[in-house]
Amino acid sequence: MSKAALYDEIGGPDVLYIGEVPDAAPGPGEVAVRVGAAGLNPYDAKVLSGAIPTKASFPRRIGGDLAGTVEAVGEGAVYADGTPIEVGDEVLGRAAGAISERVIAAASDLARRPAALPVDVAGGLYVAGLTAVAVLDTLPVDSRDTVLIGGAAGGVGFIAAQLAVATGARVIGTASARNHDLLRSLGIEPLTYGDDLATRVAALGAPTAVYDCHGRDALNAGIALGLSPQRMVAIAAGPAGDELGVRTAGREARTAVNLSILAARVAAGEIVVPVSASYPLDQVAAAFTALGRAHAPGKVIVTP
């Protein structure tokens, strides 16, 4: 038996508790991972609250992002490059119910964790990191571009902004004023959220691409400045993005191969991914509370 974060009804962080679950054996193409760190994402909170419905029976487990140590290997479990996964390997990736001491993961959702990549950083990299990769894959940019990023200090936007800077693009990013110095240190030109965003963007230069990682404000600014909806990508605007005719970030780039590449770049210091708060498993409710009020860049992590 292992401990896991569980809940018996939809609601807020207060419905979460720690219970014991049976240790399952990995099937073909699966591995058992002893979890060292599990990252929280807004998606997890939406599932917990019922905003994103699921038919899973109660008690439900929660979480997706993880990093940890391979404890058992099912038949045919290999990395994306075809090499076998072995007991003792340090990995990162995703698995359903990752906020647990032990979890079963598909081998196809895992990559090797570089030794220089801290386990807590690795544990929160999958969803935000691969979503950011998908944004740039959907709408690539280069040194000829000026990119407006809505929510450049958020989980996805912070990584997407750095990836865009690395292409040579000029990057303008919206964020709260307290995060402006950090964005400047990474080569991102910050603007505050709020009224007259299009006017303030225009004063810096007309964007050639818009990445929505926060909501509709950056998309509205792009439209106001005459940018084609085909030069915009939405991940946070929801129905508003559909209404404006902009593209959503595709899923093709969200692979273990790209996770491995991103992990290597973070380990090398090319991409900064801070951890804003870390909690032990028995404080998972506090971790979700922190997720709901997070204002600083970085991931909230649970460390079983």
Automatic annotation (TrEMBL):
Superkingdom of origin: Bacteria
Family matches, as InterPro entries: ADH-like_C (IPR013149), ADH-like_N (IPR013154), ER (IPR020843), GroES-like_sf (IPR011032), NAD(P)-bd_dom_sf (IPR036291), Zinc-ADH_QOR/CCCR (IPR051603)
Secreted in keyword set: no
One Pfam family named in its UniProt record: ADH_N
UniProt keyword list: NADP
Domain Enoyl reductase (ER): 11-302
Transmembrane segments: none
PANTHER family the record matches: QUINONE OXIDOREDUCTASE
Protein name: NADP-dependent oxidoreductase
UniProt lineage: Bacteria, Bacillati, Actinomycetota, Actinomycetes, Micrococcales
